[in-house]
């Protein structure tokens, strides 16, 4: 951020702000002229280009005005408008002008919400609600910190999150079946199962990348191994989910070791490239070994898990889940059960990781991330340490894959492309390498947040009717990454809790320490 | 005379095809402080790393406590009781002081001994006790060096290897560190020290070796080497402060 220099006259400030904004607008024009300004359309004569000058002009104008506003009100002024908002999350006292700014923002936010309700302007309502929520959370936080200065906020937050995850499906299902509220439960459950799958994958990869510091770009290979292991065992030998779960984990762990051996001597970029290749090799084998894997057609008819042997179905030979408990059959039962299965699997991943961190092997992982040579000179067998990290991480990937197969009932190589690896890695890096909480938050934001983009129809009010926000998910994905890397370069949660301490342990922010070599 | 604790016998070592050490022989007996001095690039650090098994010896033997360790992997050499405070300290920056020490204790492998070992290194370096919950990377250079030595000590070494403990430190801190080494030696620990700071090192050591271009060119007691015209000329002139400031005795 630039220093505000009060020595400049207003005219000079204005001209430099205008110049800077113009530059930003030109850059935006250059960037977006192809991305947004042109569109390929299917026509009778083949693909033709359709220019979209209005959209391009809107975007460039937004960049120009936004940059100008930032220049004038935030960067080139003695009193940046963002200061009171930043102050909300500190314990500094408010000045009068802070209070005035916040009050104004509050009124504007309230107006936005009102407009949202009165004129069904979803976008204004959403922005207004966000502003109100931001101010509200900030004030609430200040009040609680002042009243209870010693509350362990992180623990309370985590406990709240786990409690919510435990009771959310039961409570919402109970509410729905009692009051018939018309909640989109199926969608909610599907989405939360998806999020939890990514949380588990993130936690699994966190062992390899976050703790052991081995950059793995092919993690999805282990996910695929787990999924195909279950799919093949189930369709060929008729084995059930619960028997195959440990087998899938073991198979993936084995493949983790197989990958580990050739890359023992590699580090950093070289390791990343080999793991990337490994991920692709596994996918291509699945794609081409048609006799076994079904090739691009995949494997269908994978059984759903059973509740201690009771299937979830309206009618079956023998007793069904609903029949056994004497309740009416509902397709949601199976979904809720799947939710709890993945929740338990994910929590188990977390618990095992937390325990391992306190054991010699986990500490050796972290030490190896910091300095491999020092590790060896301290008597740590880095071969065993690396292989154990790969195997453990891969095992959790395999368990998640097994779950994925049973949830979908169908696997094909399409589900295990590089982009999956990239998303999982992004979750780990954005969350804060090595931080369990950060990874969970990042998974929720990345998977849930982009899902939410499907529903912001309000953006069309600005960008025109044919604007589909879902199309820009990848763009926003990149934007979110850039934003996090600017403001939180070590991820959302960058502190690392020590595993042993004398007296009071305190997590120290990662920002204070340079990256370990 | 008893057999030396560590003996390098005609050791030749190279990186790839480039030979670095030529026919190096040196002995370290139990209870001694032995130092190896030499100019930049003479092969001092390579000697130290060769003892730890990386790079591998191409000719000759490294015998520790009666075993030829020249083909052992590094971690097994550490487990035999050779603990190292490496050049550049190499502490674990994002782990706390306590965790660093815990990593050092892996070799000792005596869960009960951890507390007493900890008390011992904290008595030696009280600063580390104050900073025990701090991350290694936030320590000052001198504290990091203390941590590197303390971490090596947690492994209950029979032989402590110190590679340039005075590197980049203020004279006062260097004095503290060297006093600690003397104290450790008085408790019976054998120390092999590699130093560019020849004056301090020779003052402290029982015996010293001088290395030039990968060969041992001179050896003698610390005082003999300090008195030697050649050593004074090559390594001491202007290299240290006035003598009266130095009081390691």
Q: What features would you describe in this structure?
A:
- The complex is a heterodimer of chains A (about 525) and B (about 250).
- Chain A has two domains: about 10-145, no CATH class; about 185-495, ABC transporter involved in vitamin B12 uptake, BtuC (Orthogonal Bundle), CATH 1.10.3470.
- Chain A is built from 20 helices and four strands.
- Chain A has helices at about 10-35, 55-75, 85, 95-120, 120-145, 155-180, 185-210, 220-235, 240-260, 270-290, 290-295, 320-325, 330-360, 360-370, 370-375, 380-410, 420-430, 435-450, 460-465, 475-485, and strands at about 40-45, 45-50, 300, 410.
- In chain A, strand 1 (about 40-45) and strand 2 (about 45-50) form a beta hairpin.
- Chain A is globular, with a radius of gyration of 26 Å.
- By secondary structure, chain B is α/β, with parallel strands linked by helices.
- Chain B has a domain at about 1-80 and about 195-240: P-loop containing nucleotide triphosphate hydrolases (Rossmann fold, 3-Layer(aba) Sandwich), CATH 3.40.50.
- In chain B, about 35% of the residues lie in helices and about 25% in strands.
- Chain B has ten helices and ten strands.
- Chain B has helices at about 45-50, 75-80, 95-105, 115-125, 125-130, 140-155, 170-185, 200-205, 220-225, 230-235, and strands spanning about 5-15, 20-30, 35-40, 60-65, 65-70, 80-85, 160-165, 190-195, 205-210, 215-220.
- In chain B, the strands form two sheets. A six-stranded mixed sheet of chain B has the order 6-7-8-3-9-10, with helices on both faces.
- In chain B, strand 1 (about 5-15) and strand 2 form a beta hairpin.
- Chain B is globular.
- Residues about 240-249 of chain B have low confidence and may be disordered.
- The interface of A and B includes residues 364, 366 and 499 of A.
